[in-house]
Structure formats: C-alpha cells, structure tokens
Write a structure and sequence with these properties.
Layout: H1 2-16, E1 21-23, E2 29-31, E3 35-36, H2 45-54, E4 59-61, H3 69-81, E5 91-93, H4 126-138, E6 147-148, H5 152-161, E7 168-172, H6 180-188, E8 192-196, H7 218-226, H8 231-240, E9 245-246
Parallel strand pairs: 3-4, 4-5, 6-7, 7-8, 8-9
Antiparallel strand pairs: 1-2
C-alpha cells in the first residue's frame, strides 16, 4: 500500500509537531489527514478503511454518490468491535449529492423539465438545501455541516442567510489548483478547507491527453529528491503546512 504507507509517514511527522487536528468553528476537531474513498471500486473500501484505521487514520471521507457508505460503516464497526477504536475517535465525512437538494421532493420533482424536456436547473436553490442541513444539525443527527465545490459567490450567499455557519469547504486543491483566493475567503470566515485529489486528478473524465501530471512535475520531483521524500509526501505537505485538510485516496494493501 505504497500511498497509504507514505501518508502514514506524514501522519507520524504531524503528530510529532502536534498539529494533527484542525479545530472547526463549532469547537469540533477534524483530523488534518483523512482517507479519501472517491472512485474506489465496490469491495475495495472495506479492507482499505480497516488498514487505514490500523495505521492511524481517524478521518474517513465518503459520499452517497460513491456507493461505498455501507462498506465504510462496516469497516468502522469492525474496528470498534475489535477494540482498535471507539466511535468518538473517528471523524466521518459524507456528502449530499445534487439529486437530493430539494427537501420533501423526490423523483422528477428534483429536476423539473420544460415542454422540450430540458432541465430547469435554475430552479434548484441551494439556500433551501442549506436550511435542510441546518435542521439535520439542530436535531443532533450530525456533528458538523459544510459545503463542497462552492465558489466564493456561493459561499457568501450561504453566509448571508445561514443560522448555522458552514465549518468546512471541500474542493479540489493541489499545486496546479492552489485555491489561494478561496482559502483566504474561508480563513476570513473561520471555515476550514479540505482538499480532495491533493495528489492531482489525472483520471478524471475530462482530462486532456497531453495534460501534465502534478505527481510527475519536475519541480515536485526535485523537491522530493532534495528532502528525501516521495512526490506524494511533497504534495501532501503543500496543503498540510497551510492547515488545509487532505483526503488522498488509496485502496492497495501491499507494495
């Protein structure tokens, strides 16, 4: 599990520096390094999460759309049952997919169409969705609520209408997409930032054939050689030293 082992080395270093958690604006603490499970095939996640917990991970990122929440839950339960962890030790992040953004509506009502069959996407109001998130939070069904893939304008819109402020924003973030302005805005409003795809996203569907890979970037390789680290560790450090939470994915178990 090369990536998992490399990331575990970073966890050890961070523990020594006593900066393993980020304190959220609601007082909860979120581990600075977590395990991402996006694009993990069914059957892979169960063992990956178990191994991750065994080597020290206490933050697991999943989503309904990833179709792996059941496996994540099974892995966490197994580690609780064998006394490796307690439930309160683990921070689990999940996300509400776009087709569930309307409260008390389902099926065709979620995305109404005009007479031509075209989606009326402008009718989908994320402010209404946030109100639903606030209700879930106020009922104690979740410990924290946040945003994913929101731009500055959308974040400001939520801040203008919210009763419960988002504590975290999750976006793609790495040296090729540093998100500096977005991170600055979030810092101003005490919103933590989580970076998904911190090692780049060369397998995304819209990637161009000649697009460079951040993992193979000569400058990253040069830094890795200089500091006797792997490119993955350099990329993780890029975000971690800015107190940006990272959730790299790994499902392999052996080198």
């Amino acid at each position: 599990m090369r990536k998992l082992l490399e990331i575990s080395h970073s966890i050890c270093a961070l523990r020594m520096a006593q900066v393993t958690n980020v304190k959220l604006s609601n007082g909860k603490e979120m581990p600075l390094i977590g395990l991402g499970t996006w694009k993990s095939k069914p059957g892979q996640v169960l063992e990956a999460v178990k191994v991750a917990i065994d080597i020290g991970y206490r933050h697991i990122d999943c989503a309904l759309a990833y179709q792996n929440e059941t496996e994540v839950g099974q892995a966490i339960k197994a580690k609780i049952d064998d006394k490796t962890i307690k439930r309160e030790d683990i921070f689990v992040t999940s996300k509400l997919w776009n087709t569930f953004h309307r409260r008390e509506k389902e099926g065709a009502e979620l995305f109404p169409k005009n007479e031509k069959g075209e989606m009326l996407t402008e009718n989908i109001d994320f402010k209404e969705t946030w109100k639903g998130m606030e209700e879930v939070y106020e009922k104690g069904l979740v410990k924290s609520i946040g945003l994913s893939n929101f731009n500055s304008e959308q974040i400001n819109t939520i801040l203008s209408i919210c009763k419960v402020k988002p504590v975290v924003l999750q976006v793609e973030c790495h040296p090729y997409l540093n998100q500096n302005k977005l991170i600055e805005l979030c810092a101003k409003h005490d919103i933590a930032v989580t970076a998904y795809s911190p090692l780049g996203s060369p397998d995304r569907p819209w990637v161009k054939p000649d697009e460079p890979s951040v993992m193979a970037d000569p400058r990253i390789k040069q830094l890795a050689e200089k500091y006797n680290k792997s490119p993955a560790q350099i990329l993780l450090r890029f975000n971690v030293q800015r107190k940006v939470i990272v959730i790299p994915k790994s499902v392999t178990e052996v080198i």
